[in-house]
UniProtKB/TrEMBL annotation:
Subunit structure comment from the entry: Component of the GSE complex.
Family: Belongs to the GTR/RAG GTP-binding protein family.
GO BP terms, alphabetized: cellular response to starvation; negative regulation of autophagy; positive regulation of TORC1 signaling
Organism: Hypsizygus marmoreus
Protein's recorded name: GTP-binding protein
GO cellular component: fungal-type vacuole membrane; Gtr1-Gtr2 GTPase complex; nucleus
Pfam families for the chain: Gtr1_RagA (PF04670)
UniProt entry keywords in alphabetical sequence: GTP-binding, Nucleotide-binding
Function of the protein: GTPase involved in activation of the TORC1 signaling pathway, which promotes growth and represses autophagy in nutrient-rich conditions.
GO molecular function, one term: GTPase activity
Gene expressing this chain: Rraga
Length: 309
Protein backbone atom coordinates (compact mmCIF):
# COMPACT_ATOMS: atom_id res chain seq x y z
CA UNK A 1 0.00 0.00 0.00
CA UNK A 2 1.54 3.29 -1.15
CA UNK A 3 0.66 6.66 0.43
CA UNK A 4 1.75 9.89 -1.22
CA UNK A 5 2.96 12.61 1.16
CA UNK A 6 3.51 16.11 -0.28
CA UNK A 7 6.05 18.25 1.58
CA UNK A 8 5.64 21.86 0.45
CA UNK A 9 6.50 25.39 1.55
CA UNK A 10 8.76 28.32 0.67
CA UNK A 11 12.42 27.83 -0.14
CA UNK A 12 14.50 27.71 3.05
CA UNK A 13 11.53 26.98 5.32
CA UNK A 14 13.20 23.72 6.41
CA UNK A 15 11.52 20.88 4.44
CA UNK A 16 14.64 18.95 3.44
CA UNK A 17 16.13 19.46 6.92
CA UNK A 18 13.19 17.78 8.63
CA UNK A 19 13.18 14.98 6.07
CA UNK A 20 16.86 14.31 6.67
CA UNK A 21 16.39 14.28 10.45
CA UNK A 22 13.38 12.01 10.50
CA UNK A 23 14.12 9.62 7.66
CA UNK A 24 17.92 9.62 7.35
CA UNK A 25 18.91 9.87 11.01
CA UNK A 26 21.13 12.93 10.39
CA UNK A 27 21.75 15.37 13.25
CA UNK A 28 20.27 18.90 13.14
CA UNK A 29 23.78 20.41 13.02
CA UNK A 30 24.38 18.96 9.53
CA UNK A 31 21.27 20.50 7.94
CA UNK A 32 23.00 23.83 7.27
CA UNK A 33 24.98 22.04 4.53
CA UNK A 34 21.89 21.00 2.58
CA UNK A 35 21.49 22.64 -0.81
CA UNK A 36 18.19 23.92 -2.22
CA UNK A 37 15.96 21.16 -3.60
CA UNK A 38 15.68 21.23 -7.38
CA UNK A 39 12.14 20.49 -8.54
CA UNK A 40 10.76 17.45 -6.67
CA UNK A 41 12.84 14.87 -4.80
CA UNK A 42 10.92 11.64 -4.40
CA UNK A 43 11.69 9.05 -1.75
CA UNK A 44 10.10 5.74 -0.93
CA UNK A 45 10.23 4.80 2.71
CA UNK A 46 9.09 1.35 3.75
CA UNK A 47 7.07 1.96 6.87
CA UNK A 48 5.60 -1.06 8.62
CA UNK A 49 5.47 -4.19 6.46
CA UNK A 50 3.42 -3.26 3.44
CA UNK A 51 2.90 0.47 4.03
CA UNK A 52 5.19 2.55 1.83
CA UNK A 53 5.44 6.32 2.24
CA UNK A 54 6.03 8.02 -1.08
CA UNK A 55 7.51 11.32 0.05
CA UNK A 56 7.55 14.22 -2.44
CA UNK A 57 9.89 16.94 -1.17
CA UNK A 58 8.93 19.86 -3.44
CA UNK A 59 11.66 22.51 -3.83
CA UNK A 60 10.14 25.83 -2.75
CA UNK A 61 11.78 28.37 -5.09
CA UNK A 62 9.21 30.51 -6.94
CA UNK A 63 9.98 29.06 -10.38
CA UNK A 64 9.31 25.53 -9.09
CA UNK A 65 6.16 26.57 -7.20
CA UNK A 66 4.80 28.29 -10.32
CA UNK A 67 5.38 25.14 -12.32
CA UNK A 68 3.68 22.84 -9.71
CA UNK A 69 0.66 25.11 -9.79
CA UNK A 70 0.37 25.26 -13.59
CA UNK A 71 1.90 22.68 -15.95
CA UNK A 72 2.56 20.03 -13.25
CA UNK A 73 -0.67 20.68 -11.33
CA UNK A 74 -2.36 17.32 -11.90
CA UNK A 75 0.86 15.30 -11.43
CA UNK A 76 1.63 16.99 -8.12
CA UNK A 77 -1.81 17.06 -6.56
CA UNK A 78 -3.31 13.73 -7.59
CA UNK A 79 -3.44 10.66 -5.29
CA UNK A 80 -2.22 12.66 -2.27
CA UNK A 81 -2.77 11.10 1.18
CA UNK A 82 -1.30 13.98 3.18
CA UNK A 83 -0.03 17.46 2.37
CA UNK A 84 2.42 18.99 4.85
CA UNK A 85 2.91 22.72 4.28
CA UNK A 86 5.87 24.30 6.10
CA UNK A 87 5.95 27.99 7.13
CA UNK A 88 9.08 29.66 8.52
CA UNK A 89 7.91 31.29 11.77
CA UNK A 90 9.90 34.46 11.11
CA UNK A 91 9.38 34.68 7.35
CA UNK A 92 9.40 38.11 5.74
CA UNK A 93 7.16 36.96 2.91
CA UNK A 94 4.07 35.68 4.70
CA UNK A 95 1.59 37.15 2.23
CA UNK A 96 3.35 35.48 -0.71
CA UNK A 97 3.60 32.20 1.28
CA UNK A 98 -0.13 32.34 1.96
CA UNK A 99 -0.93 33.02 -1.68
CA UNK A 100 1.01 29.92 -2.77
CA UNK A 101 -0.50 27.93 0.09
CA UNK A 102 -4.08 28.81 -0.90
CA UNK A 103 -3.34 27.84 -4.49
CA UNK A 104 -1.94 24.46 -3.34
CA UNK A 105 -5.03 23.92 -1.19
CA UNK A 106 -7.11 24.59 -4.28
CA UNK A 107 -5.12 22.07 -6.32
CA UNK A 108 -5.59 19.52 -3.56
CA UNK A 109 -9.35 20.15 -3.42
CA UNK A 110 -9.61 19.43 -7.15
CA UNK A 111 -7.37 16.37 -7.38
CA UNK A 112 -7.31 14.80 -3.87
CA UNK A 113 -10.29 16.11 -1.92
CA UNK A 114 -9.87 13.51 0.86
CA UNK A 115 -6.23 14.36 1.64
CA UNK A 116 -5.37 15.46 5.19
CA UNK A 117 -3.63 18.82 5.53
CA UNK A 118 -0.99 19.54 8.19
CA UNK A 119 0.60 22.96 8.62
CA UNK A 120 3.92 23.32 10.39
CA UNK A 121 4.96 26.64 11.90
CA UNK A 122 8.61 25.74 11.71
CA UNK A 123 11.87 27.06 13.25
CA UNK A 124 10.02 27.84 16.49
CA UNK A 125 13.45 28.07 18.18
CA UNK A 126 13.90 31.39 16.31
CA UNK A 127 10.59 32.92 17.46
CA UNK A 128 11.26 36.44 18.71
CA UNK A 129 8.25 36.64 21.03
CA UNK A 130 7.21 34.04 23.65
CA UNK A 131 6.66 30.77 21.80
CA UNK A 132 3.06 30.15 22.85
CA UNK A 133 1.92 33.65 21.83
CA UNK A 134 3.73 33.45 18.49
CA UNK A 135 2.29 30.00 17.79
CA UNK A 136 -1.29 30.94 18.70
CA UNK A 137 -1.13 34.00 16.46
CA UNK A 138 0.28 32.05 13.50
CA UNK A 139 -2.22 29.24 14.02
CA UNK A 140 -5.15 31.67 13.86
CA UNK A 141 -3.73 33.30 10.74
CA UNK A 142 -3.28 29.93 9.01
CA UNK A 143 -6.72 28.64 9.98
CA UNK A 144 -8.25 31.81 8.58
CA UNK A 145 -6.30 31.41 5.34
CA UNK A 146 -7.51 27.80 5.06
CA UNK A 147 -11.16 28.86 4.86
CA UNK A 148 -13.47 25.85 5.00
CA UNK A 149 -10.66 23.27 4.85
CA UNK A 150 -9.94 21.34 8.04
CA UNK A 151 -6.26 21.69 8.89
CA UNK A 152 -4.06 20.66 11.82
CA UNK A 153 -1.32 23.08 12.88
CA UNK A 154 1.87 22.19 14.80
CA UNK A 155 4.76 24.34 16.01
CA UNK A 156 8.06 22.59 15.19
CA UNK A 157 11.84 22.92 15.35
CA UNK A 158 14.64 20.57 14.36
CA UNK A 159 16.34 21.43 17.66
CA UNK A 160 13.81 19.78 19.96
CA UNK A 161 11.27 16.96 20.17
CA UNK A 162 8.39 19.00 18.65
CA UNK A 163 9.25 17.70 15.16
CA UNK A 164 8.66 14.10 16.30
CA UNK A 165 5.32 14.96 17.85
CA UNK A 166 4.10 16.50 14.58
CA UNK A 167 5.42 13.75 12.32
CA UNK A 168 4.13 10.94 14.57
CA UNK A 169 0.64 12.47 14.42
CA UNK A 170 0.90 12.85 10.64
CA UNK A 171 2.09 9.30 10.01
CA UNK A 172 -0.52 7.96 12.43
CA UNK A 173 -3.27 9.14 10.06
CA UNK A 174 -1.75 6.99 7.29
CA UNK A 175 -1.58 3.71 9.23
CA UNK A 176 -4.67 1.72 8.29
CA UNK A 177 -4.75 -0.62 11.31
CA UNK A 178 -3.63 1.79 14.03
CA UNK A 179 -6.69 1.07 16.21
CA UNK A 180 -6.12 -2.70 16.04
CA UNK A 181 -2.45 -2.27 16.93
CA UNK A 182 -3.43 -0.14 19.89
CA UNK A 183 -5.83 -2.84 21.12
CA UNK A 184 -3.14 -5.54 20.86
CA UNK A 185 -0.70 -3.29 22.73
CA UNK A 186 -3.23 -2.78 25.52
CA UNK A 187 -3.60 -6.56 25.91
CA UNK A 188 0.19 -6.93 25.83
CA UNK A 189 0.60 -4.18 28.45
CA UNK A 190 -1.83 -5.98 30.78
CA UNK A 191 0.05 -9.27 30.27
CA UNK A 192 3.31 -7.55 31.31
CA UNK A 193 1.71 -5.62 34.22
CA UNK A 194 3.04 -2.58 32.39
CA UNK A 195 2.03 1.02 32.92
CA UNK A 196 2.37 1.64 29.22
CA UNK A 197 3.59 0.01 26.01
CA UNK A 198 4.65 2.05 22.97
CA UNK A 199 5.37 0.86 19.43
CA UNK A 200 7.94 2.80 17.35
CA UNK A 201 8.81 2.52 13.67
CA UNK A 202 12.34 1.18 13.35
CA UNK A 203 14.12 3.75 11.12
CA UNK A 204 12.34 6.96 12.00
CA UNK A 205 11.49 6.08 15.60
CA UNK A 206 8.15 7.79 15.13
CA UNK A 207 5.38 6.53 17.41
CA UNK A 208 3.03 4.17 15.58
CA UNK A 209 0.68 3.21 18.39
CA UNK A 210 0.45 3.07 22.17
CA UNK A 211 -1.51 1.00 24.66
CA UNK A 212 -4.57 2.80 26.02
CA UNK A 213 -3.82 5.20 28.82
CA UNK A 214 -3.86 3.68 32.28
CA UNK A 215 -6.20 4.76 35.03
CA UNK A 216 -4.13 6.81 37.51
CA UNK A 217 -4.86 4.33 40.33
CA UNK A 218 -2.96 1.53 38.65
CA UNK A 219 0.14 3.73 38.52
CA UNK A 220 0.67 3.40 42.23
CA UNK A 221 2.98 0.46 42.97
CA UNK A 222 1.67 -2.12 45.42
CA UNK A 223 2.15 -1.06 49.03
CA UNK A 224 2.67 2.69 48.51
CA UNK A 225 0.40 5.29 50.02
CA UNK A 226 -1.91 7.23 47.72
CA UNK A 227 0.17 10.33 48.51
CA UNK A 228 2.92 8.94 46.30
CA UNK A 229 0.73 8.87 43.21
CA UNK A 230 2.21 12.07 41.84
CA UNK A 231 5.58 10.40 41.49
CA UNK A 232 4.21 8.40 38.58
CA UNK A 233 2.42 11.14 36.70
CA UNK A 234 3.30 10.55 33.06
CA UNK A 235 4.86 13.44 31.19
CA UNK A 236 2.68 14.45 28.21
CA UNK A 237 5.77 14.94 26.02
CA UNK A 238 7.19 11.46 26.80
CA UNK A 239 6.56 9.95 23.33
CA UNK A 240 8.30 12.59 21.25
CA UNK A 241 11.11 12.96 23.79
CA UNK A 242 11.77 9.23 23.62
CA UNK A 243 11.87 9.37 19.79
CA UNK A 244 14.34 12.25 19.92
CA UNK A 245 16.56 10.65 22.60
CA UNK A 246 16.72 7.25 20.93
CA UNK A 247 17.48 8.83 17.54
CA UNK A 248 20.34 10.80 19.13
CA UNK A 249 21.60 7.64 20.85
CA UNK A 250 21.43 5.67 17.59
CA UNK A 251 23.42 8.43 15.90
CA UNK A 252 26.10 8.23 18.65
CA UNK A 253 26.24 4.43 18.19
CA UNK A 254 26.77 4.81 14.45
CA UNK A 255 29.63 7.28 15.04
CA UNK A 256 31.55 4.60 16.95
CA UNK A 257 30.49 2.00 14.34
CA UNK A 258 28.19 0.13 16.69
CA UNK A 259 24.66 -0.86 15.91
CA UNK A 260 21.81 -0.11 18.27
CA UNK A 261 19.92 -3.27 19.31
CA UNK A 262 18.10 -2.82 22.59
CA UNK A 263 18.03 -0.91 25.85
CA UNK A 264 17.23 -1.81 29.46
CA UNK A 265 16.89 0.61 32.36
CA UNK A 266 16.17 -0.13 35.99
CA UNK A 267 15.65 3.10 37.92
CA UNK A 268 14.46 3.57 41.48
CA UNK A 269 10.79 3.90 40.57
CA UNK A 270 10.39 2.28 37.16
CA UNK A 271 11.83 -0.19 34.69
CA UNK A 272 12.03 0.29 30.93
CA UNK A 273 12.82 -2.22 28.21
CA UNK A 274 13.20 -1.23 24.56
CA UNK A 275 13.63 -4.07 22.09
CA UNK A 276 12.85 -5.16 18.54
CA UNK A 277 9.27 -6.25 18.12
CA UNK A 278 9.09 -6.96 14.37
CA UNK A 279 11.31 -6.30 11.33
CA UNK A 280 9.97 -2.72 11.17
CA UNK A 281 9.20 -1.90 14.79
CA UNK A 282 10.60 -1.47 18.29
CA UNK A 283 8.57 -1.77 21.45
CA UNK A 284 9.08 0.12 24.71
CA UNK A 285 7.62 -1.31 27.92
CA UNK A 286 7.35 0.86 31.02
CA UNK A 287 6.74 -0.90 34.34
CA UNK A 288 6.32 0.69 37.77
CA UNK A 289 6.24 -2.60 39.70
CA UNK A 290 9.75 -3.24 41.13
CA UNK A 291 9.12 -6.99 41.43
CA UNK A 292 8.98 -7.46 37.66
CA UNK A 293 12.31 -8.48 36.11
CA UNK A 294 13.52 -7.12 32.78
CA UNK A 295 14.28 -10.71 31.67
CA UNK A 296 10.58 -11.54 32.03
CA UNK A 297 9.64 -8.51 29.92
CA UNK A 298 12.12 -9.52 27.21
CA UNK A 299 10.70 -13.03 27.21
CA UNK A 300 7.19 -11.61 26.78
CA UNK A 301 8.38 -9.53 23.81
CA UNK A 302 9.89 -12.63 22.21
CA UNK A 303 6.64 -14.52 22.67
CA UNK A 304 4.48 -11.68 21.31
CA UNK A 305 6.57 -11.17 18.15
CA UNK A 306 4.62 -13.53 15.93
CA UNK A 307 1.34 -11.84 16.83
CA UNK A 308 2.66 -8.42 15.74
CA UNK A 309 4.59 -9.53 12.61
P1 LIG B 1 14.22 24.34 -0.61
O1 LIG B 1 14.89 23.04 -0.85
O2 LIG B 1 14.89 25.48 -1.33
O3 LIG B 1 12.76 24.31 -0.88
O4 LIG B 1 14.40 24.67 0.96
P2 LIG B 1 13.99 23.76 2.24
O5 LIG B 1 12.63 24.13 2.70
O6 LIG B 1 14.21 22.31 1.92
O7 LIG B 1 15.01 24.27 3.34
P3 LIG B 1 16.23 23.48 4.02
O8 LIG B 1 15.76 22.23 4.67
O9 LIG B 1 17.30 23.34 3.00
O10 LIG B 1 16.64 24.46 5.23
C1 LIG B 1 17.13 25.75 5.07
C2 LIG B 1 17.89 26.15 6.31
O11 LIG B 1 17.04 26.21 7.45
C3 LIG B 1 19.05 25.21 6.69
O12 LIG B 1 20.19 26.03 6.88
C4 LIG B 1 18.63 24.58 7.99
O13 LIG B 1 19.72 24.32 8.86
C5 LIG B 1 17.68 25.63 8.57
N1 LIG B 1 16.66 25.04 9.45
C6 LIG B 1 15.83 24.01 9.17
N2 LIG B 1 15.01 23.74 10.21
C7 LIG B 1 15.33 24.63 11.19
C8 LIG B 1 14.83 24.86 12.54
O14 LIG B 1 13.93 24.20 13.07
N3 LIG B 1 15.41 25.89 13.23
C9 LIG B 1 16.43 26.64 12.70
N4 LIG B 1 16.94 27.61 13.48
N5 LIG B 1 16.93 26.45 11.46
C10 LIG B 1 16.39 25.46 10.72
Amino acid sequence: MKKKVLLMGASGSGKTSMRSLIFSNNPASLTARLGATIDVEQNHVRFLGDLILNLWDCGGQDAFMDSYLTTQRSTIFQHVGVMIYVFDVETHGMSKDLEYYRDCLDGLKNFSPDANVFLLVHKMDLARQPKNLTFDKKKRELEEASGESAVTVFGTSIYDESLYKAWSSIVHTLIPNAAVLSRHLTTFAAACSATEVILFERTTFLVIATSSPVVPDTLSPVGTEPGNLDRHQLDPTRYERTSELVKAFKHSCSRVREEFHSLEMELYNFTAVLDEMTRNTYVLIIVHDPTIETAALKLNIRMARRKFE
